[in-house]
Amino acid sequence: MSQPIFPGSTIGILGSGQLGRMLAIAARRMGYKVQTLSPERNSPTGQIADLEWVANYNDLDAIRAFARGVDVVTFEFENVSSEAVSAASEFTIVRPGGHVLHTAQHRLREKTWLEENGFPVAPFRHVSTVEDVQAAAKALGLPIVLKTAGFGYDGKGQVKIDSLEDIERAVASLNGAEAIAEGFIKFTREVSVVAARGTDRSYVDYGVFENIHRNHILDITIAPGRVTTATMKCATEIARGILGKLDVVGVLCVEFFEVADGELIVNELAPRPHNSGHVTFDAHVTSQFEQQLRAVCGLPLGSTEQYRPAVMVNLLGDLWKNGTPSWGRILEDPGVKLHLYGKAEAREGRKMGHITVVADTIEQALAKADSIRTTLAPQLRTKH
Ligand code: AMP
Asked: Average pLDDT of the chain?
């Protein structure tokens, strides 16, 4: 085990979105310096970092130069090539290791790894042609979901197939990309476990978060999730197993479908902090970002104790349609915490920020979240 990387050292973040921004805030708070590298200028992370490198992830010379100046490299974005990870590893410590990214950035590799290691996944087939998808539909039964194997997030590169007639159009929409066909899961709930593992193999998690999506994008997270002890136990045991087997050093989120009480299917792994874990920034002793920092620096992991029940609501670009939302009105409630990511352009579906509502009970937090939503955009109220 290598020496801990103490405050005063420099953290290198590959990627520059809101996840990196919140990691940079946590790192700055603890006295670390921060550098970020991505193709973006004046990025959410760059606004907080000491230094913002603007380069493509496949510019290996830039990655090497970046790695030379930092004490550890970590990620806020997993779609970085193995070549880039190897280039960074020539000069500094990279956590989590390249093998974690390699597995989690590609659905086919991820699902195959999960299945081979005995973790529950939806039945799937590797497909590339219309004939493959027809055969998969026959084997798995309709409906199925077609997903690109690489570089997918928030439901992008994903299409549901309800009838055999849909197949040709669905395959055409892939533009030749490698894909998987997956059985459609009639879930009762979507939940996630955000977990962390240290260099000493210590493990912590934040229990179960409950997630409600709209248009395939996370809309709200309820913490703790409204699940039974059996589901809680099953989810956290699976998460612990995955982080251990994958030998993760850092934070990893496991997304699940709950199909019955205590019965879960793993949907996806994110080898970094996750949108559902944003709630930890305001509601827990140690945020998922500080936890990532502690894990990749080889420090002891922090307490995951939750102070108060909380609900996180994503703020998408849609809310800016008629100008800047009226923050004054929502901040009238002292239990509401506002986070904005410093993005200049508010596009539809773009994650611009989030709010966390803390209250004495989940029901109260949900009611407040609902009333805030009504203030911001009445048409966007969510059923829960
Ligand atoms: P993903 O990009 O795989 O996380 O999927 C985004 C969302 O699409 C999930 O959170 C689910 O709401 C839905 N979804 C994905 N795969 C399936 C499936 N096999 N069955 C049912 N719903 C799915």
From this structure: 95
Give per-residue pLDDT as tens, 134-145.
Answer: 999 999 999 999
Ligand 1 neighbours (beta carbon < 6 A): 122, 145, 152, 155, 158, 182, 184-185, 190, 213, 216, 255, 267-268
Question: Model pTM greater than 0.70?
Answer: yes
227, 258 in Cβ contact below 8 A?
yes
For a pocket test of ligand 1, which of 78, 212, 216 has the largest count of ligand atoms closer than 8 A to its C-beta? 216
Phi, psi at residue 31, to the nearest 5°?
A: 90, 20
Atom of ligand 1 nearest to the CA of 154: 2
Q: Is 25 buried (19+), middle (13-18) or exposed (0-12) by CB count in 10 A?
A: middle
**What is the Å distance from ligand 1's center to 43 Cα?**
29
Nearest atom in ligand 1 to 147's CA: 3
Please determine, for residue 379, whether its predicted confidence score (pLDDT) is greater than 90.
no
Among protein residues, the one with the nearest Cα to ligand 1's atom 9 is 216
Would you say the C-alpha torsion 276, 278, 279, 284 has a positive or negative sign?
Answer: positive
Contact 160, 145 (CB under 8 A): yes
Q: Are residues 380 and 373 in contact, defined by beta-carbon separation less than 8 angstroms? A: yes
| Nearest ligand 1 atom to alpha carbon 155 | 2
pLDDT at 381 (0 to 100)? 56
Give per-residue pLDDT as tens, 354-364: 999 999 999 99
